[in-house]
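Methods — Computational structure assignment.
A single polypeptide chain was analysed. Its primary sequence is given first, followed by the predicted tertiary structure written as structure tokens.
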Amino acid sequence: MQLDSPGLQVLTREECLDLLSAAPIGRIVFTDRALPAVQPVNFHLNGQAIVIRTTIGSKLAAATRRAVVAFEADEIDPELRTGWSVTAVGQAMTSGVCTRHRSCSPPAADVIAG
């Protein structure tokens, strides 16, 4: 088991993807007018890519266009004082307009970070 400097267990890529696949909510970190911004988001994994649906023209869609972003998801048990946190950093890109689901109203774009 590999530990980082504070003594926390370092997870493998596979362990991180397994944890992310079960997380209901994550947070995307991006720059908004030269300031850091964090927004909770629903997401899903497409292979190793983190896919976030947003409306076309939204602040999130505009701010993440080809930008470097961070994504974080976690689960904490305060009673046991245990949990996990996965952070990913990558360039965001738009995958295109959503045509897969009837529920995409207004039209939505997928932002992919990974």
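Note: The chain has two helices and seven strands.
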